[in-house]
Amino acid sequence: MADYTYQYLNVTFPPEHQYVAHVEINRPDKLNAFIEAMWLELSAIFTRLSSDPSVRAIVLTGAGDRAFTAGLDVKAASEGLLSDSPGQPDLDSARRATPLRRHIASIQDCISSIEKCEKPVIVALHGIALGLAIDISVAADVRVCSADVRLAVKEVDIGLAADIGTLSRLPKVVGNFGWVKEVALTARVFGADEALRVGLVNRVFENKAETVRGALELAGLIATKSPVAVQGTKELLNYSRDHTVQEGLRYTTVWNSAMLQTKDVSAALLSGIQRRKPTFEKL
User: Fold this and answer.
1) What is the pLDDT along the chain (283 residues), one digit of tens a residue?
2) Which helix (H) or strand (E) holds 191?
3) Which of 50, 42, 54 has its CA nearest to residue 13?
4) Residue 36: which H helix or E strand, with range?
5) Under a CB-based contact definition with an 8 Å cutoff, are residues 11 and 4 in contact?
6) Superkingdom, according to UniProt (predicted)?
7) Residues ≥6 apart with Cβ < 8 Å to 175
8) Distance CA 95, CA 100 (A)
9) Three-state SS for 99?
10) Which of 82, 75, 6 is nearest to 37 (CA)?
11) By three-state DSSP, how is residue 92 classified?
12) What distance in Å separates the CA atoms of residue 185 and residue 243, rounded to the nearest whole number?
């Protein structure tokens, strides 16, 4: 495998799950709270994994027992992005707002790298999972969690409207606009049972170890499928989510006019007839 060495995130490739990458947020002494260098690393990693032919599915977890991530490192942000320092007081409001707008957009792009990644991404949540944890989770394809997870859309508690993806993606994930408004407006903490009930997570496991194991097993299963079919399925589902049915059908027609020419179709069909496990070339 290529060298994936970063300061704040670990990338490993579990030998028991071929073609699976395990990305771990690794700042446990700070509850995996994010500073700017971390979301830049996150973006770099998912951009690389997206085009790595040796990877077909990805699991994202948080190091340590206490937190997936506590969200934004508020102390660091208060000295930088969220500072109330006047900066250059001679600038008018438009000229102060412009670099801030660009900065927010750059953070959005970092989190969106998970959604844009061609490979399916499974997030395994545990412990504290606040603020940015929700942004990250809803940019992924599948979410699972441990029974002890504590989730919250926390931004209103620090004087912000969530701006990195939660307000755009969470309503489409759970399909319950009233519930989304409630948790976003109150910043209240909710647990695994409620997350499962509204459809935010697919499964709940007893503890972190079982959650990570379950996520890796699910990723391993996905990785056994045709990468042409899997990557196409993610692309078409995400496109159809944001477009009309007719537009989705049209895009699917164009996409599959090329992708149906793959050898993976005949390999999958023959393996079913011959009752053997199919193998697929890297993509």
Assistant:
1) 678 999 999 999 999 999 999 999 999 999 999 999 999 999 999 999 999 999 999 999 999 999 999 999 988 776 666 655 555 667 888 888 888 889 889 999 999 999 999 999 999 999 999 999 999 999 999 999 999 999 999 999 988 899 899 999 999 999 899 999 999 999 999 999 999 999 999 999 999 999 999 999 999 999 999 999 999 999 999 999 999 999 999 999 999 999 988 888 878 777 767 777 888 999 9
2) none
3) 54
4) helix 36-51
5) yes
6) Eukaryota
7) 199
8) 9
9) helix
10) 6
11) coil
12) 27
Answer yes or no: are the C-beta atoms of 109 and 43 closer than 8 Å.
yes
Helix ranges (DSSP H) in 199-226: 208-223
CATH 1.10.12.10 maps onto the chain at 227-274
Tell me the sheet residues that pair with 20.
Answer: 57
- State how far Cα 74 lies from the chain centre: 21
**DSSP secondary structure of 150-203:** EEE--GGGGT----SSHHHHHHHHH--HHHHHHHHHH---B-HHHHHHHTS-SE
Architecture of the domain made up of 227-274:
Orthogonal Bundle (1.10)
- DSSP label of 264: H
Q: Tokens in use for 227?
A: 């990468």
- Nearest by Cα to 68 from 174, 172, 212: 212
What CATH code is assigned to 9-223?
3.90.226.10
Amino acid letter at 199?
G
Do residues 2 and 48 touch, judged by C-beta distance below 8 A? yes
125 by DSSP, 3-state: which?
A: strand
Residues of the chain with CATH 3.90.226.10: 9-223
In this prediction the pTM is 0.93
